[in-house]
Amino acid sequence: MDSTPEPTNDHERTIAEALDRKMLAPATPCGSIVSEVVESMPFELSIADIQFLLNYAHWRFPQPAKKKPTRGTSSKDLKRSG
Predict the structure, then answer these.
(1) Quick one: which H or E segment has residue 22?
(2) Are 4 and 44 in contact (CB under 8 A)?
(3) What is the dihedral of CA 51, 55, 56, 58, to 10 degrees?
(4) For the whole model, what pTM was predicted?
(5) What average pLDDT does this structure show over 64-76?
(6) Contact 49, 71 (CB under 8 A)
């Protein structure tokens, strides 16, 4: 996801604020933060709310760097192995 998922309603704003606050805690695992946000909501999350939470969390959490082929391994070799 390249663009920032912008909150469009009160539920989404509350979700984004809660996730941003939880991200300030040092070394808290992503899954734990998402679970804590779900549990802390003062309203029942709809499917759209959950989708926003997952999209927003995906955007906010740093993504691991993609592995590059080791030196001497061609992309053709990688395609055959996997």
Answers:
(1) helix 10-23
(2) no
(3) 140
(4) 0.68
(5) 60
(6) no
Name the residue with tokens 């499917």.
47
Helices and strands, number each (H, E), in the chain: 4, 0
Which of helix, strand or coil describes residue 66?
Answer: coil
23-40 residue pLDDT tens: 887 777 777 889 999 999
Nearest Cα neighbor of 1 from 48, 67, 60, 65 is 60
Q: Six-digit token pair at 39? A: 């549990």
Residue 38 CB: number of other CB atoms within 10 A? Answer: 14
Contact criterion met (CB below 8 Å) for 1 and 58: yes
Rg (CA), the chain: 18
